[in-house]
Amino acid sequence: MNLIKYIGMDVHKAMTVIAVLDSAGKVLAEAIIETKGSTIVDFFKSQRGTLHVALEEGTQAAWLYDLIQPHVASVIVCDPRRIVRQGNKADRVDARLLAESLRTGGLKPIYHGEKSTRAVKELALSYISVVADGTRLKNRLKALFRGRGIACSGTAVYSPDKRTDWVAKLDSPAVRARADRQWQELDLVARLSEEAANDLVAESRKHAATRILRTVPGIGPIRAAVILGVAATPHRFRTKKQF
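^ thats the sequence. predicted structure below, dont judge the formating
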């Protein structure tokens, strides 16, 4: 007879509290283990039967989702704000509550995507953050000139070829040194942005979805890769409007 088990995991930075229930709600086991990949995998390998797992959304949820999924029948990552708790919060109580809510169908999962697009997601987030850093640097550089009554509309102030002219407009060595460092930062971020874009596009080409996205007018290789990394799949959205 195949035993069905419902497992709740209360995850913390160093330790994870686990509660295991059977289909009748009886506690079969409780454990406190290290929040470490090999330790967690060993725990699930030691369990027999059909395993269903629940854990709360958090910093380590995506990593745990991918880590646990190959060893169990299902994994649900849920929103902790939607769990009705009674009394004070306690790790063992939380683990049991997760397992019991999973057993009774009381958890609403948060979409965590397919593992196949995980690399695209990481590279998309890297690209987005580097581009945002570049935008902040450009705004800071223009603010330096505008704060001294020097007009700097357009993009000429960012150009390496015209920096000597822009430096000459500044009235003190200290301000010139500040501007020079900001230009150096901008050059570094520009190089990192190009590297991030190349890595992102190369990874996204492994997925047929990017070719479909690129048939949409106005969507190029980078934008298609970012959409794939952020959205992962249209099936996570209930309607086309939400997508």
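Strands lie at 4-11, 15-22, 27-34, 50-56, 74-78.
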